[in-house]
Design goal:
- The chain has no helices and 13 strands.
- By secondary structure, the chain is mostly beta strands.
- The structure holds calcium ion (2 copies).
- One calcium ion binds next to loops.
Amino acid sequence: MQITATIQNQGQTAATGDVSFYYDVQDAGNLIATNTGVSVVGSGGANTVANWDTTGLGEGTHPIIVVISNVTPAESNTTNNEATKDFVIDNTPPIISNVTSSVGGDTDNSYVVGSTVRIHVFEQNNETGLTGTVTITTDGGAPVVTDAPLLAGSYYYDWNTVGRSAGEVFFIETTLRDVAGNEDSDGLPMTL
Ligand SMILES: [Ca+2]
Ligand SMILES: [Ca+2]
């Protein structure tokens, strides 16, 4: 993974310094890279880049800490030489444990034309921050609803079936996706 740090020079004259990148904690064992002699024009900015091999790093939040040192000419303010940004490793997809349809207390996946059908998706791990979509097609594959968003957090969609025909068969396909892009899909057939 490539990390880009933007260094700002608040002084009027050009300055040079070393930029070190750490993860989790600021110590030698967690040093990603040090770019020496990064120069920044007066009252300007410069980008400096480090490559980070995240192989083997555990899941979870890993702060990236960027520190400037050895600045020349000597600085008037060394309290603003560090910045931190959280980086999250997430290799675990959400798992859809169940997809249901219902009209009130009726949950047999067969409903009267004109009903508003609630499609409800359940996630096994209670992972937060998921987004979900639902796509509904006819038995022949014609799209009826395409990638409609599920309500955030409770993952349902209310489908108004006004204008459909009795006897129609549909397939409901739902997807839940986490912020890292891992996803799971599941569905069920439904009849009017
Ligand atoms: Ca995940
Ligand atoms: Ca029914």
